[in-house]
Design brief:
The complex is a heterodimer. By secondary structure, chain A is mainly α. Chain A has six helices and no strands. In chain B, α3 packs parallel to α8 (191-203). Chain B is globular. The chains are: A mainly alpha, B alpha/beta. Chains A and B meet through α1, α2, α4 and α6 of A and β1, α1, α3, β4 and α4 of B.
């Protein structure tokens, strides 16, 4: 157990807070709000657009944000916009290639082709149009 | 290394303290160094609390600390939806499954399994304590071997201060304390505690994750991990 004092905290604050490597804006709080109230999907999507824009402008785009933005565009029925984002994620983060290729396939209206790796229920056509499911 | 409780005056304070002092026994990073994971797939958390919303809310907190530690973090919301579309909406099922099949499905080097042990707010005699307890398990998605585990427990109790020594001062203090406790009980704020749990779990020398490939300290922090 420890009971930090405000003074100690301030001293440590100066020395220990790591610099952020990436631009996040309000990514985390907007995702939280989206889970809290799915009706904020468009606010979350707009925030992702901002995170992506600001990150790209600064050359410090966070991992995953292009993909998350693309996914929200896809659920809103904008497959073309989604593909642009999935391609951007793949270009910035080659680690995402397997997943992004799969998402690009989905956005092109193709079911996943890597069926061997996928567990049950790959028969339904995921992520068509409309709002997220929850 | 489980169950260390950090009690805080203000939510962000203990994070910094915990991050800067009293390192416990150092972990063995041999398996981690050998596996050298560059990307982390975070799957939805198992929930052992009674708050059904905890796993989703929690998911919004985990990307930042892992990414800032230098890893590629797969997009958590997209991953959650893809798993749901594949019939894997039950976190227990995902956690019980083969890490290697998840790894090949997403192209991930490692899978992070999170369990929410506690996510509650309890009122006992004029005092409310909000607790978030999280356990973490990182598994190599190629070998299925466990690379790292950690448990973090964070507590927050609003504390009234001041009041002096007089009876009137004490009564005033008790009223302030009661109000603060009632406010916390009515709307406990779990998110700062969850973020703190993550930050200390990931960032603490000899306990957290070594720097990943996207930051400068990568492969230069052997003395700390």
């Amino acid at each position: 157990m420890m009971r930090p004092t405000a003074i100690g905290a301030l001293l440590l604050l100066a020395g220990c807070v790591p610099q952020s490597h990436y631009v996040w804006d309000k990514y985390d709080t907007s995702l939280y709000n989206f889970y809290k109230d799915p009706a904020t999907a468009s606010a979350y999507t707009e925030q992702l657009a901002l995170v992506v824009h600001d990150g790209d402008a600064a050359g410090r785009t966070a991992p995953g944000v292009h993909a998350e933005y693309g996914y929200m565009l896809l659920t809103a029925g904008n497959g073309g916009g989604a593909i642009v984002q999935f391609e951007a994620e793949k270009r910035l983060w080659p680690e995402s290639t397997v997943l992004m290729d799969r998402m690009i396939g989905l956005a092109n209206g193709k079911p996943p082709t890597d069926g061997a790796n996928i567990q049950p229920a790959a028969t339904n056509q995921p992520v068509a149009t409309g709002k997220p499911t929850s | 290394m489980s169950g260390r409780v950090v009690r805080l005056a203000a939510p962000f304070v203990a994070l910094l303290l915990a991050g800067c002092i009293h390192p416990p026994t150092a972990k063995d990073y041999a398996a981690f160094r050998a596996a050298d994971p560059k990307s982390i797939l975070v799957v939805p958390a198992i929930n052992r609390s009674v708050e059904v919303t905890a796993p989703d809310y929690y998911l919004s907190t985990i990307t930042l600390p892992l990414a800032e530690r230098g890893y590629y973090v797969f997009p958590v919301n997209l991953v959650k939806r893809v798993l749901e579309d594949d019939g894997l909406s039950d976190a227990n099922l995902v956690h019980a499954g083969d890490s290697r099949s998840l790894g090949s499905m997403f192209g991930a080097d490692a899978v992070l399994y999170v369990t929410i042990e506690r996510w509650d707010s309890r009122y006992v005699v004029l005092s409310t304590t909000t607790t978030v307890s999280i356990s973490y398990r990182l598994v190599d998605a190629r070998s299925g071997q466990e690379l790292w585990n950690e448990t973090r427990t964070m507590e927050y109790s609003p504390q009234a201060s001041g009041g002096g020594g007089s009876p009137a001062g004490l009564v005033a203090l008790l009223i302030v304390q009661a109000v603060a406790s009632a406010v916390e009980k009515a709307a406990p704020d779990y998110m700062p505690l969850a973020r703190m749990a993550n930050n200390t779990a990931v960032g603490l020398p000899h306990q957290g994750l070594p720097a990943g490939p996207h930051i400068d300290q990568y492969r230069k922090d052997q003395k700390d991990f």
